[in-house]
Task: inverse folding
């Protein structure tokens, strides 16, 4: 039980990578606060140690409420997984719309910064705090059809490195997981999912998409004591897709 006695907050945990991560951490002994929009609240009973809170992370007050709920329910916070995100595909014009830009930046960047700042004192008290941010292969490689998304994931990776430098003195590690093409409910909602998936498989030496569990396993490793001397790192979990970009 790698996470016995530890408390984790996982955002975007109503499905896909976030749900797999929350369940994996809980199965290994953590008490987990799973965070997502009310529309993604679980309909079935959750396993012991896993608790759901509905929150719109675009709202600063909601972020404060998430941190307060973790403290009230579990007594503190040891691990933060910033997984919540949106894509915002656009036409190939290099810019996209103002609306998409604001939506993507608010969820993918602002919420990561705000929630990390909100729980940092908890992580300091933990003595071995962990922040794991979910980036993307697009954290280093561009996409012409998702300029806001690509920019946001570059920003998340930059924030990861900056926080790693600032918080290491407190025993806090900050890392990013950089998934490639992953089979999630969000990706299956793409109008061109089958074509997108075919490209993802063809560019991976392993010839498949990632599963949510693949990502959850990487997050669990970075949250564990086995990764205690890893910080400021972006871990590709993409089946080698980055090798052909």
Result:
């Amino acid at each position: 039980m790698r996470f016995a006695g530890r408390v984790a907050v996982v955002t975007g945990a109503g499905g896909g990578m976030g749900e797999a991560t929350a369940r994996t951490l809980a199965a290994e002994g953590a008490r987990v606060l799973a965070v997502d929009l009310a529309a993604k609240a679980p309909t079935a009973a959750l396993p012991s140690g896993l608790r759901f809170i509905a929150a719109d992370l675009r709202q600063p007050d909601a972020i404060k409420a998430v941190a307060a709920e973790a403290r009230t329910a579990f007594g503190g916070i040891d691990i933060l997984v910033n997984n919540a995100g949106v894509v915002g595909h656009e036409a190939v014009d290099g810019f996209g719309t103002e609306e998409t830009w604001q939506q993507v930046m608010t969820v993918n960047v602002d919420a990561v910064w705000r929630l990390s700042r909100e729980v940092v004192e908890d992580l300091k008290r933990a003595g071995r705090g962990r922040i794991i941010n979910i980036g993307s292969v697009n954290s280093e490689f561009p996409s012409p059809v998702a300029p806001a998304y690509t920019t946001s994931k570059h920003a998340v990776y930059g924030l990861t490195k900056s926080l790693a430098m600032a918080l290491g003195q407190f025993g806090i590690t900050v890392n990013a997981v950089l998934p490639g093409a992953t089979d999630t409910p969000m990706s299956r909602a793409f109008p061109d999912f089958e074509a997108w998936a075919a490209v993802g498989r063809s560019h991976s030496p392993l010839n498949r998409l990632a599963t949510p569990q693949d990502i959850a396993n990487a997050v669990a490793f970075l949250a564990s004591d086995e990764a205690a001397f890893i910080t400021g790192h972006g871990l590709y979990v993409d089946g080698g897709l980055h090798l052909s970009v």
Remarks:
- The CA atoms of residues 82 and 133 lie 5 Å apart.
- The first strand starts at residue 7 and ends at 11.
- Residues 98-126 form the longest helix (29 residues).
